[in-house]
Amino acid sequence: MQHYSYKYMCQGNFTSPVKKENLKKCLEIGYGSGIWMMEMASEYPNCNFYGIDIQPKTPDSTFPNNCEFIKDNVKKGIPFPDETFDFVYLRMTMIYIESNKWKPVISEIFRVLKKGGWVEFLETDMTFKSSGKILKSIMKFWIDMFEAKKIDPKLTRQLGTILSETGFINVLNKKYSLPIGSWAGTLGKIRSQSLDIWLYVTADISYKNLGFDTKEEYLKHIENLETEYSEFKPYGDQYIAYGQKPLN
User: Fold this and answer.
1) How far apart are CA 23 and CA 76, in angstroms?
2) Distance (Å, rounded) from C-alpha 124 to C-alpha 109?
3) What range(s) does the Methyltransferase domain occupy (predicted)?
4) Are 157 and 239 in contact (CB under 8 A)?
C-alpha cells in the first residue's frame, strides 16, 4: 500500500531526469518487499537490478530474472566496485541509519555511481501537521525512540545539502505536503491505509510504551484515527531529493 501511495505521488517509480535508454545497472538500498525493483525490472528488461537489505526478504511472488537480492549492511560499505551503477534508489531508509553514518553512506553511493549517474531518495518527515491527539502521541513516541538511537527523522529536510556537499550536481530537494485520511480523496485514503498498516505492524512495540495494558486495547484505540483524520485534516511532508555524479 505504501508503495502505491508513493507511486501515485510521483506519477511513476522515480522522478530523477535519468536517461532511460542509459539504464544498464541499478541499485536499490533497503529494498524491503522488493516491489519497486520488480516493477522496474519488468519495465526495463535490459537493465540489471540489484537490491541490498540488512534484513532481506525474497519476494513471495516470482520475480524477474534481471533482479538480484543481496543481504548486506550499507553502513559497512556498498559491496560493488567503483562506477558500477547508472542509478541508485533509496526509499524510507532514514529511520534505519544513524545520523552520523549518512555522509559516509552517501559518499559510498557517489563512489559506486558511474559518471553522469543519478541517486534519488524518497523519505518521510515524521512530524505530521494539524494532527489530533492520537496521531500526535504515537508519532512523538516514535520520534523520541529514534532520537534515543541517534537517528534524526528530521534529517530528510537536509538531504539536498548533504548531496551537494558530497559532490553531486543538479541537486533537487522537493517537499510534498500530502493529506492523510479519506476526507482528502484517493491520495488521502491511500496514505491513511498505508499509515494504518504501519501502526498495526508496529503495535507490539508501541502499545506498552503508550500506556496500554494490552495490544488489543491499543488496536481498539487506533480504530478512532479515521474519525480524527476527518476532524483535524492532517497532512505530512514527503521529501524527494536527487543528484547527479559529475561527468568529470
Assistant:
1) 26
2) 20
3) 27-117
4) yes
Cβ(181)–Cβ(226) under 8 Å? yes
Tens-place pLDDT, residues 42-94: 999 999 999 999 986 666 667 899 999 999 999 999 999 999 999 999 999 99
> Cell 514527503 identifies what position?
238
Domain CATH code at residue 116:
3.40.50.150
pLDDT given at position 136 = 95
C-alpha cell at 242: 536527487
pLDDT, mean of residues 130-158: 94
Range of the domain at 167: 2-244
Question: Amino acid identity of 123?
Answer: E
Q: What is the pLDDT of residues 87-114, one digit of tens each?
A: 999 999 998 999 999 999 999 999 999 9
Phi, psi of 201 (to 5 degrees): -65, -35
Neighbours of 247 (CB within 10 A): 9
Number of structural domains (the chain) is 1
Is the whole model's pTM more than 0.85, yes or no?
Answer: yes
* pLDDT number for residue 153: 87
The percent helix, strand, coil of the chain (3-state, each to 5) is 45, 25, 30
88 burial level (CB within 10 Å; 0-12, 13-18, 19+): buried
Please give the grid coordinates belonging to residue 100.
552520523
